[in-house]
Amino acid sequence: MPETDHFLTRPSNIAYPRQPVAGGNGMKKLLPVLFILLLVIACSGEENESVDTITIDDLLKENDFILAEDSGNITALQFRSLIFFNDKQYPEAINASEQCLKVDPTCSLCWHIIGSSWGFLNQPEKAAEAFQKVVALDPDDPIQYNIQGVALSRTGDTTGAVHALEKAIQIDPRYAAAWNNLGVTYFGMDDIGKALEAFDRAIALKPDEPEFYSNKGYALLKKHDYSGALSSAKTARNIDMTCVPAWFVSGEAQFNQGNFKDAFYSFDGGFNAQSNSELWYYQGSKNTQITSDLQAMDAYYSAVASNVRFTGLWDRTTVIQYKIKRYQDTLDLYDQILAITPDYPAGWKNKGFCAIKLSRFESAKDAYERAMESFPNDPDVLSGYGYACGILGDYLKAMNNINKAIELEPASASAYLYKGLTYSYYGQREDAISAYKKGLEYNPHDAELFEALSDVQFKNGDTLGGIINSVRAIIGF
Description:
Layout: H1 26-43, H2 56-69, H3 74-86, H4 90-103, H5 108-120, H6 124-137, H7 142-155, H8 158-171, H9 176-188, H10 192-205, H11 210-222, H12 226-239, H13 244-256, H14 260-273, H15 296-306, H16 312-323, H17 327-340, H18 345-357, H19 361-372, H20 379-391, H21 395-408, H22 413-425, H23 429-442, H24 447-459, H25 463-475
């Protein structure tokens, strides 16, 4: 796990620290108490007798005893909020901190706990407000500016986030986590050049942090530098084979290079790397655990069932399944996704695409109709829907939708493919050939267009043209 005050490392998604970072005089007051407590634990009991584990209830009872004697004991109040925070009881931690602030409004530790707790409760605006109090109380502490930057990034205030993170770096130029967070923020602003510069500074300062390399990998993916992204992911995995983002960076890079089987195995490696850890950003479910007794895809299914909005990586896996011609597996996966996310429009779109590959045109038509509710002007949806309608006998609806797709995206090779296939189905071979050739003007390496063109040429008696384009379908040129 990375150090406590930087991101959980997807560039477009930011997380809060797991433990509060010391700030101001609050922790200084707590340290003697904690030391005494640990000393008592270590020294209690007679020789050869074991010491029972101290539970949260035990700590709270002791704390209640102290506060019963002195309800305004600032150290006990701070300790109470810390007990709840470390036990992940965030609402209770906030309440306890607020009680402490009634006694001492300048307690930066309590403001910090409030901010971190709101962060874990996915309330970034409230978190940012609390951290503003922290930096006002500790204006020379770079850690506080760093965490304020994280909070502001989550609210969408990227300008404020950059200002806070730059302040942290100004105070401590060797603060690697702040450089990393600055890179993440620039990534979210789509300023990939500055993001890469920041990630490189973080790596130079702390070259053994795998997440810095995986973050850089995401930025390189954005630049379409797939070889660079693979290299960054490999470095991250060499440091820590369980670095989940590194596996997914590798999968994305392999996918974009056309190495679909390698991509599939990389994603699978990422799922397996999650087997004993909290799910990452893709699912957005902080507390959903994948346990070691679940297979990777089963575990992922369980996670998505807990948070149905986040199906991105599962969706990508289905694309890979399709690319390596596991069409039925792909369709089955989409059926599972849509069973628990019926309002997931991209799933309906992709299911329609896959159903066409299996010649299940009724299923494709129904899926595209659902997708059109959210994507009424998506050229891929319109052309796929049109083709399915055409095969099912509605030629006019087919051409209306395909032509609308071409009007919206004149360079859509797939729309011309579907137009040609529809023409061919109704015996309009010359029109089909014209549509295929037009599509190849926009995508001269489209194997499906070459294959469809060769099929019509063979039917027209153009054996030589059919053979040539059959070969082109194989080599993609």
